[in-house]
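We include this case.
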Amino acid sequence: MHETGRPEGESDPKRVGAEGSPVSAPAVAPAGGLPGATPLIDARGLHAYYGASHVLQGVDFAVAPGESVGLMGRNGMGKTTLLRTLLGHVAARAGSVRVDGVEATREAPHAIARRGIAYVPEGRGIFPNLTVRENLRVAARAGVDGRQGWTEERVLATFPRLAQRLSHGGGQLSGGEQQMLTIGRALMTNPRLLILDEATEGLAPLIAREIWSIVRAIKDDGIASVIVDKNYRAVTAIADRAVILVKGAVAFEGPSAEVRARTDLRERFLGV
């Protein structure tokens, strides 16, 4: 493998045949997505660094309206850095990010969020000293198109555990409840795109199944999503498309069903 994750002799890192030979990719919107759709978010040739470490090495990545994308790869391959670069938390050294076709590469994180992109970070990031109700209300706003489908009442109906703990401080919740609160708070912004980094990391299996059921319901509601999680089965059961990063570059892009079906691909890029 080269540093970018591209196997020797492979001309297109985004599609890999069963024996490692390249195959032609299907027609898609720029950098992936749904044919003919203007992506909600469209990154081209992203390069990003942490100090002297060159983390992202020319990544193309896009999400179309209503599409769910599973972002996959072993630990340390650049998944979180890609998300943080898309959202303005990490400055791109080269390349571009566009939201709805409008340049957003140098925009501040809050400005990108105001365009209808919600982020559920690894580690959750709730306000531990605020109550559950206060955590939800601090984020409440109409969507960019005026939509207000995700109200406090709807969030609490979706997460009944939170309804039972409205007066509890965020720091008093279990890990699973904190994850529910973080997702609920993101939904209170009525987003068009929800980005979940390590959606079920560290959660008990029963709670994880509950989270996956909610992520499925969010997709069915028409909200686009980017999902990062180590459980490839759960991710590919929901995502329309999978993107796998290897050493900061796209090593595979294709239907989620292909990841589920191909043991060789999973062993090669995911180690499972």
Q: What stands out?
A: Residues 1-13, 16-33 have pLDDT under 50 and may be disordered. The radius of gyration is 18 Å. The longest strand covers residues 53-63. The domain at 1-114+240-253+260-272 is CATH 3.40.50 (Rossmann fold).
